[in-house]
């Protein structure tokens, strides 16, 4: 599989949903496979909150392959011998696209908290500029889970002529207060962390000291991305063999797991990017521009394929069923499919239980239902 | 209804589950109604994590009555014209019983982080000393929800001759990793809060500055004590009218609710008490002393009445069903009743949806099934 990582700089201002303007911006993106001559074999992949444009393949120095490597590759469900796959790092994220630590051209300093709040629609609009520059007018499909699923839904509504098929996994038409609450923990913990210094933190400090506030936010995320049953199965009540049961800070294995993953997170993800990306997810609402969800989904021309996961504790299956019901209600039942996967890994099932829905995706990509 | 608040001091050492010893201790408690002549009308009420011995009635200067005032009172389900009700503040809690800010007799200083880790069994054992001092040998019933339900279960196993009936609501036989994870957020946030000063905080600082770490822990608690449906119904996607949608720190109403409740919490609850009480809940395991749950529940002589709530996100109904199944498996099916209440308020349903189970309790207290 041919992998390329590239960056494009856009000098044309991007008018944001908020009314503010991003004077210029960069998008870093990765591609897998080869673009065919008539540019008709494109599949767009959209990443979730904490992940990057590195969706598949493995670089020489990498311990782990890209985050959807089980789905994307030669001979896999998203077959890179057939398709040319593009995954862009979202605006605001901390993996190389323009974000709060980028230089504000009007001040020549990092934006920090002066960075504008972005919406999912802004991320998608910027990515459309990228495809345009690459001469890509149409996509065979768009696929995304969680925040990537929000992008997929947004493409289907805002750019209805772009993709033939849109796959939205483990996502929602609008973020509900349950998911907002988990993000709130992180947002508050970051704001109150003295190392954060109201956004004026030193990046070296964070590499040296970590950022407990962001780690605590990550813990809240890990809880709602997994599930009670998974925790029971994986950790049960196992206790750290090094710790005393009656030590106040002695730890169950689940606590060690949360600590390990959470305290590493600030080394790879920036706290301002975390704040802006949480905010972007919180304000996501497919119905905003058209007043109602019905009006928004009435614009959809693609086939819309919805996949939910039975034990998703972030975006519950009912939230995806609601989209299916709306499509049926507005007379677009022929354009929508819905599958609930019986999962055991919570929200993250879309990343780790690919074997349960890959055939479904293959059949749909091949035009079977 | 006659209400009395009293404190008892115990000079006899309490040998703790951990092997450590609490040299002396105090318990503050409240009683409602009148103890009858043969002391046969006692009902013990056990409080959850963040509440106190003030379970019912309203003092002259109080805006709100005690936390289970809808259940306990003259003519109510726990009828104080018939019963003499006792509710003790648990050891370790911050409402007046011995806790980490009490004076350690061996050093004449506050314990702080030298306070021993307590188990639910220690709390219950100390309360038994209180009943003994009051000349109470038997209880008509014990009733508790959440951490109070853990105490109720512990009484039924450790002191099987004490109560005729035990009511455990919204609780579990052993704390699972899901609930431990929510507590973990608070424990980590408190530890990393610079105002906490590794347990050597100034109480005046906390009154003046709050303690964001404890507030963030409280937020995590509030999320798992409520439920996604309740959040949808109560807050939906309403946005604070004072805040901008595209302001990074602009807030949805759910966020304002969490902030309001969380940031007030450190004014009424001590962070060390919070840490010790979370730890006590985390290590709760009905099977510990007897190796298996079956052996533990084999000791039960009381009628055991289990009430779960359909949308409880802290202790899921399956956890209480498991206790019922164990009782049946060990041949004690006649001693157990189980009711799942169709609730809409999450874990906190045991506090706020009393009308859905009060008749059930009344009938059982009167010996009907």
UniProtKB/TrEMBL annotation, chains A, B:
Residues that coordinate or bind substrate:
218, 348
UniProt keyword annotation of DNA damage present? no
Q: Which SUPFAM superfamilies match?
A: alpha/beta-Hydrolases
Q: Which GO terms describe its biological process?
A: homoserine metabolic process; methionine biosynthetic process
User: In the UniProt entry, which residues are flagged as the active site?
Assistant: 146, 312, 347
Report the EC code(s) recorded for this entry.
2.3.1.31
AB hydrolase-1 domain span: 42-351
> Which of UniProt's keywords are assigned here?
Acyltransferase, Amino-acid biosynthesis, Cytoplasm, Methionine biosynthesis, Transferase
Compartments, as annotated in UniProt: Cytoplasm
InterPro entries reported for this sequence: AB_hydrolase_1, AB_hydrolase_fold, HAT_MetX-like
Q: Which GO terms describe its molecular function?
A: homoserine O-acetyltransferase activity
List the pathway annotation. Amino-acid biosynthesis; L-methionine biosynthesis via de novo pathway; O-acetyl-L-homoserine from L-homoserine: step 1/1
Catalysed reaction per UniProt? L-homoserine + acetyl-CoA = O-acetyl-L-homoserine + CoA
Cellular component, GO annotation: cytoplasm
Q: Which HAMAP family match?
A: MetX_acyltransf
Query: What family does this chain come from, according to its entry?
Result: Belongs to the AB hydrolase superfamily. MetX family.
Q: What does this protein do?
A: Transfers an acetyl group from acetyl-CoA to L-homoserine, forming acetyl-L-homoserine.
Task: State whether it acts alone or in a complex, and with which partners, per the record.
Answer: Homodimer.
The entry's protein name is: Homoserine O-acetyltransferase
* Species annotation: Halarcobacter mediterraneus
What gene, per UniProt, encodes this protein? Answer: metXA
């Amino acid at each position: 599989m041919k992998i390329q990582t590239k960056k494009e700089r856009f000098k044309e201002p991007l008018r944001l949903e908020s009314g503010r303007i991003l004077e210029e911006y960069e998008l870093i993106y990765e591609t897998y496979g080869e673009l065919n001559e008539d540019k008709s074999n494109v599949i767009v992949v959209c990443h979730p909150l904490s992940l990057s444009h590195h969706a598949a393949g493995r670089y020489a120095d990498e311990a782990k392959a890209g985050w959807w490597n089980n789905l994307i590759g030669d001979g896999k469900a998203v077959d890179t011998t057939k398709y040319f796959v593009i995954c862009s790092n979202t605006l605001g994220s901390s993996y190389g696209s323009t974000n709060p630590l980028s230089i504000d051209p009007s001040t020549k300093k990092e934006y920090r908290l002066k960075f504008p709040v972005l919406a999912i629609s802004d991320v998608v609009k910027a990515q459309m500029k990228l495809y345009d520059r690459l001469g890509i007018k149409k996509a065979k499909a768009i696929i995304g889970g969680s925040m990537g699923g929000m992008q997929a839904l947004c493409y289907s509504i805002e750019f209805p002529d772009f993709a033939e098929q849109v796959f939205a996994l483990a996502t929602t038409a609008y973020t509900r207060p349950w998911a907002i609450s988990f993000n709130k923990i992180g947002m508050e913990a970051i704001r109150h962390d003295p190392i954060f210094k109201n956004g004026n933190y030193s990046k070296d400090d964070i590499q040296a000291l970590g950022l407990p506030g962001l780690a605590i936010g990550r813990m809240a995320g890990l809880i709602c991305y997994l599930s009670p049953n998974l925790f029971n199965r994986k950790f049960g009540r196992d206790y750290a063999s090094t710790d005393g049961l009656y030590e106040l800070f002695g730890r169950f294995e689940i606590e060690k797991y949360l600590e390990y993953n959470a305290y590493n997170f600030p080394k790879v993800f920036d706290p301002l990017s975390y704040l802006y990306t949480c905010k972007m997810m919180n304000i996501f609402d497919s119905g905003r521009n058209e007043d109602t969800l019905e009006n928004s989904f009435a614009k959809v021309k693609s086939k819309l394929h919805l996949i939910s996961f039975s034990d998703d504790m972030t975006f519950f299956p009912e939230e995806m069923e609601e989209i299916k019901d709306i499509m049926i209600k507005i007379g677009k039942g022929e354009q929508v499919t819905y599958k609930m996967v019986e999962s055991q890994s919570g929200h993250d099932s879309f990343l780790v239980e690919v074997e349960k829905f890959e055939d479904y995706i293959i059949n749909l990509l091949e035009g079977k239902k």
